[in-house]
Amino acid sequence: MEEICTQPLDSQTIPIDQLINESAPSYGQLVGNGYNFGTIELCSEKFSVGRDQKCDLVVSEELLPHSSRILISNFHFTLERDVKDCYSPTYIIDSSTNGTFVNGILIGRNNRAILLPGFIISIAAFRNLFVYKQPNYSLPPEVESPGLIKQYHIGRVIGSGSFGTVHLLHHVSSCVPYALKIVRKQPYKMKLRGSSSLFNETEIMKKLNHPCVIRMFDFINDPSSISIVLEYMQGGDLLTRIMDNSYLPEQTAKFYFYQLCHAIHYLHSREMLLENEWFNHSDVVQLARSLMKLS
Fold it and tell me: I need a surface site. Which of 90, 107, 204, 263 has the fewest CB within 10 A?
């Protein structure tokens, strides 16, 4: 696509020192890769980049040559983050005509992606313009899979128990939320029947598609843990819902039981057994229960 001028050039600029010397605590940094951008501390929930004087970072002639600035939109991209949540992902929203790229991949106008530490931002014809850094971003020690680390933002813990932990997960390209269940192998001294059987069962589980069965999207068998990427259920579990309301009205209980029966019938019709040879008996019940979901 032909690169075009998107807005008239602005003559006024805001000194970049005002951005670099922010006194408020920052959650991350935009590190300029040349072009005199320096290191910019990110402190606010929204941070915009473009030629317009309303942008937090105004791309002026001091930063880019006059002849090249015509490729930069007035509002080229914006970073957004919930600064009150230390586990929140950082989103980059493309609002440009000539493109915003993360690691060489076009986001697309009015689309968004998630930034991970070390991701490279390019705008228009300017490749590798910024590197995103987030010094306080830390991965759970039990996460071993490079694929998980590169493809997902691993956030706050949303569940825990003797089996391990469940983290909120976001895919960096689609921004879709998932639940990451990490099961430690050592406490249970898991005895698998064989790797072929294990992966056959997980492949079958991936194919399950029913509105009352939580979907499994990925399974990673690491040396000391098992990671399972599941559909994220924002509504919580049935026990919590009952406890929060003291009881369930009869019609509501019937509706939930109806869904449960539908899920069990679906599994039995495909000769799916509600058991799992990797875990002990108590965890079999927990896993089977976690497969069910409420509308």
Answer: 204
- CA separation for the pair 86, 249 (Å, rounded): 38
| Percent with pLDDT over 70 in the chain | 77
Question: Which pLDDT belongs to residue 125?
Answer: 85
Q: Is 191 annotated as a binding residue?
A: no
The 10s digit of each residue's pLDDT in 132-170 is 999 888 888 878 788 888 999 999 998 887 667 899 999
Determine if the pTM surpasses 0.90. Answer: no
The two structure tokens encoding residue 65: 């040559």
pLDDT at 44 over 60: yes
Residue 165, SS3? strand
Provide CB contacts within 8 A for 266, sequence distance 6+.
208, 210, 212, 213, 272
List, in order of start, the domains of the chain with CATH numbers.
Answer: 28-133 (2.60.200.20), 146-290 (3.30.200.20)
Contact 36, 17 (CB under 8 A): no
Gyration radius of the chain's alpha carbons: 24
